[in-house]
Amino acid sequence: MNPQQLEKVRSARGFIAALDQSGGSTPKALSLYGIQPGSWSGDAQMFDLMHAMRSRIMTSPAFNGDRILGVILFEQTMDREIEARGSADYLWSVKQVVPFLKVDKGLAEETHGVQVMKAMPGLDALLARAKDRGVFGTKMRSVVKRADAAGIEDIVRQQVTTGMQILAAGLMPILEPEVDIHAPDKPEAERLLKAALLKHLETLGPDRQVMLKLTIPSADDFYADLVGHPNVLRVVALSGGYSREEANRLLARNHGVIASFSRALTEGLSAQQSEQEFNQALDASIAAIHAASGT
């Protein structure tokens, strides 16, 4: 791993921008940006529009490494260029922002109250390609729908096992066992999740670290022992469907946890805005998330 990138992720103030919407979530992301379904014909044109949106965000003067530690990219974004440079190279060389890559292939059907990740048979090849393109780390998501101990154990075991594979490839894994904010027993699900994570982190050994991306917990500072865990490089929070204002308010009450927001980051941005309007809106969004990540 690049030592400058590692140190930035470990200790710098800021947050991680999640720009990794993939096939299923792309139409909704474009719709929120003011580009309605029917404005494109076929997936290729849809992803061209999405790349244009992401490029507009990443090339904005408001978007730089002063307040943003890293960006999570979709695989197609990694494979494309921004201002005639590979996306990951542009982010680090021009913006001093650390590039991450979403590597999961989506969610399996719900079993035992959870959705584990679908199989990733091509993961080793993807990791090698990502490392070659200058990517620092990865992210992969699974979802807890209710407090089922067996299901949560399955999710954490899969996340940690895959994380070890990613570490072996020389990349930093972000494990994302999301707890659905609408789970009827969310606090209990979080208790079970934390216990499973602490148990599995002990298997990593003293010289290995992972990152965790977690839902903002129901109890303030509930994940403090994960924030301070020697095997955890950084704990980041997803916005989980909360508005930006609500996500920032809740995040600020969890010390040492920084944002890794997706929809909450892009809230208020529109394809119809002028460059000045767009940059001002993005700057305000980044400033608010950065402030909430500084507690």
Nearest-integer average pLDDT = 95
Please give the radius of gyration in angstroms: 18 Å
Class computed from helices, strands and strand pairing: alpha/beta
Helix content: 40-55%
> Between the first and last Cα atoms, what is the distance in angstroms?
27 Å
The biggest sheet, with number of strands, parallel, antiparallel or mixed sense and barrel status, is: 9 strands, mixed
Number of strands: 11
**CATH fold naming:** TIM Barrel
What this model shows, in words?
The protein is of the alpha/beta class. It has a single domain (3-292), classed as Aldolase class I (TIM Barrel, Alpha-Beta Barrel), CATH 3.20.20.70. The chain contains 12 helices and 11 strands. It has helices at residues 3-11, 26-32, 43-59, 75-78, 87-95, 123-132, 149-168, 186-201, 224-227, 244-251, 263-266, 275-292, and strands spanning 15-19, 68-73, 81-82, 85-86, 98-102, 114-115, 137-144, 172-179, 210-215, 232-238, 258-259. The strands form 2 sheets. Strands 1, 2, 5, 6, 7, 8, 9, 10 and 11 form a 9-stranded mixed β-sheet that branches. Strands 3-4 form a two-stranded antiparallel ribbon.
